[in-house]
């Protein structure tokens, strides 16, 4: 590494820290940076469309004959817990099953490091046997992603759009509550033929991976009858492809997990590069103004989602950024555009939040903190969950008539 490159990288990192220290305050940024620098914590979303025994077997392969879940008479260990998500009024609490390991506390005496633990939180999902055609047993992801899917509250009979779906974790989470009659363990009736999940990704390679992941986790009959579809449409570009995706406001629920600055990834890349005496391009190329350019795309995606959803339907906007420009700022720009649309004759508006559900709000505070227009899950939250970061804001499209 030349001195010029090293100096440029050092200046970018200093600018990065000054920028977020100014946003969060010096004391909070010190806490938040340390938490962001820690290895990402993963939960295991159990796939309801395959036998639970396959998840148990995957754990047994990883942890030996004594199953952490107490399967087949084994004593359960104390380091595994089933996560409890906030209860959406009228929703099915049992649809999403997600486990996490006990979480070691972050020590203020230890220097920040992104080194991954020697043993992952959960084993990588793989087929039960080499010739198995069963869906995969679980998906490893940040529990904040499952939280957002849970709060969108997809129900049997809903038509759901995941607008920026790759690689598919949130889509798989949304799917868990759409077809309970197809659960491998304790299926419930009646059949939900009308449920539909459209998973979109604009990038060709990522869309291909998305389609493969969906087929690896969901029952084949859902694809045969067109209940699950993977599309490749740029949701920021008007045209026939986008018109086909929107289908005249056909969706009950829309998730917009928008591309964002992903500061945790930048921090991890920087720390890992330093360990080998290198500089990470993610940090060296970081600029404060990048968020403004991203926010333009994010607003376009959110407005597309509002066009796609039915009047009375719900949209969930989410990012893994800690930058207010990409979070509350996008929501405020959306609100301004909706107001402008009303003046031009639009017959709908939006309502933010969860409809005054105080019980849900109280439960949410165990996961996240409020922002001006939504909520954000952060890894230094007092609950010590170490989940996130993930900003989210739910909105309902309502008629003006």
TrEMBL record:
Domain SAM-dependent MTase RsmB/NOP-type residue range list: 142-398
| Reaction catalyzed | a cytidine in rRNA + S-adenosyl-L-methionine = a 5-methylcytidine in rRNA + S-adenosyl-L-homocysteine + H(+)
Q: Name one GO molecular function term.
A: RNA binding
Q: Which GO terms describe its biological process?
A: rRNA methylation
**Protein name per UniProt:** NOL1/NOP2/Sun domain family member 4
Listed under GO cellular component are: mitochondrial large ribosomal subunit
Disordered: annotated span:
103-135
**Active site residues according to the UniProt entry:** 320 (nucleophile)
* Subcellular localization: Mitochondrion
User: From what superkingdom does this record's organism come?
Assistant: Eukaryota
The record, for PROSITE patterns, names: SAM_MT_RSMB_NOP
InterPro entries attached here? MeTrfase_RsmB-F_NOP2_cat, MeTrfase_RsmB-F_NOP2_dom, RCMT, SAM-dependent_MTases_sf
Cite the binding residues for S-adenosyl-L-methionine.
Answer: 164-170, 201, 234, 257
- Key word Nucleotide-binding present: no
Q: Which family does it belong to?
A: Belongs to the class I-like SAM-binding methyltransferase superfamily. RsmB/NOP family.
Residue ranges crossing the lipid bilayer per the database entry: none
Its lineage reads: Eukaryota, Fungi, Dikarya, Ascomycota, Pezizomycotina
Keywords on record: Methyltransferase, Mitochondrion, RNA-binding, rRNA processing, S-adenosyl-L-methionine, Transferase, Transit peptide
Keyword RNA-binding tagged: yes
The organism encoding this protein is: Elasticomyces elasticus
